[in-house]
UniProtKB/TrEMBL annotation:
Database matches in PANTHER family: TETRASPANIN, TETRASPANIN FAMILY-RELATED
Gene Ontology CC annotations of this record: plasma membrane
Sorted UniProt keywords: Membrane, Transmembrane, Transmembrane helix
InterPro entries: Tetraspanin/Peripherin
UniProt organism field: Ciona savignyi
Keyword Transmembrane: yes
Superkingdom of this protein's organism: Eukaryota
Protein name: Tetraspanin
Membrane topology: Multi-pass membrane protein
Transmembrane intervals: 12-40, 52-76, 83-108
Predominant location category: membrane
Places the protein is found: Membrane
Length: 136
């Protein structure tokens, strides 16, 4: 490896660090949502579209974190095939994030309206009250 190639490795490892942190953030938010998801059906109803995006983002966040580690290994080992595989899988991950974001955007008005209507029943229905208390 020549001296001119050294900064490229550092840039790629730095990018992988940001990808790892982004995957960790997505994973953390989706794990919190998946853990507290038991309260959401009582508030939002049984619409499956709202919950699909949570599980999609859970998978994408964990895959991003694993792929960042794979990317660091491929950069450090200077294996061209591994770098091509890494770039292809990152493209698939980006497309999955795009689908998850579109699902969240499409179902947001439905979830917002259901949440606002359930707030009116906060003191009347014990399951809705428990659901809101769990989320908070």
């Amino acid at each position: 490896m020549s001296y001119g190639e050294m900064p490229h490795k550092g840039v790629l490892i730095c990018c992988n660090l940001f990808i790892f942190m982004g995957g960790g953030a997505i994973l953390g938010a989706s794990v919190w949502t998946a853990v507290t998801i038991g309260a959401f059906p009582s508030i939002l109803g049984a619409s499956a579209g709202v919950f699909i995006s949570v599980y999609l983002m859970l998978a994408v966040g964990s895959l991003m974190s694993m792929m960042a580690i794979f990317g660091c290994i491929s950069v450090l080992s200077e294996n061209k095939k591994m770098l091509v595989i890494y770039a292809g899988i990152l493209t698939v991950i980006f497309l999955a994030e795009l689908v998850g974001s579109v699902l969240a955007f499409v179902y947001y008005p439905l979830a917002r309206d259901a949440a606002h209507s359930s707030m009116e029943l906060y003191n009347a229905d014990n399951t809705i009250e428990l659901g809101w208390d769990t989320i908070q």
